[in-house]
Amino acid sequence: MTRRLTVPDPEAMHDLGLRIGRMVRAGDLVVLTGPLGAGKTTLTRGIGEGLGVRGPITSPTFVLARTHPSLVGGAPLVHVDAYRLGSPAELDDLDLDFESSVVVVEWGAGMVDGIADSVLEIRIDRGPDDTRSVELAGSGPRWVGRTDP
Ligand SMILES: Nc1ncnc2c1ncn2[C@@H]1O[C@H](COP(=O)(O)OP(=O)(O)OP(=O)(O)O)[C@@H](O)[C@H]1O
Ligand SMILES: [Mg+2]
Hints:
single chain; alpha/beta; Rossmann fold; seven-stranded mixed sheet; globular; binds adenosine-5'-triphosphate; binds magnesium ion
């Protein structure tokens, strides 16, 4: 699954997250990459709403990972800010419950190597004005035959 979208505003970013949140399931790993203020947390908020987890989803400034339990009997969302993590080993050290959660890692590029065999990589880039260009690429066995958000 590879797809590129233009996201005109924050509401559309939230809405894209909502659709992703309705699609992902326990065991899925989502890695978000993009510059400061790209919209990674905005997208994650939408994913949380789509999953039906308890908020609020904020930028995890003082914690590296925060778990948001499901309000609808589904998978929890584990929201990781890898900005201050130095290596995949440090991410591994957090002992996250990858199997029964949906894990979303901001600044996760290069941080999940060797941790999971399947990943949904989402790259956000700034476009003209406030638009963002978003590229979604699912790789590994978990993403074979999955439908687009
Ligand atoms: N098209 C857009 N999509 C997403 N956010 C947008 C867009 N246009 C403007 N914004 C604004 O950009 C900001 C994005 O902030 P957000 O915290 O989601 O980014 P981030 O990538 O998580 O930042 P950080 O790198 O600090 O973690 C918000 O203030 C949001 O309103
Ligand atoms: Mg953020």
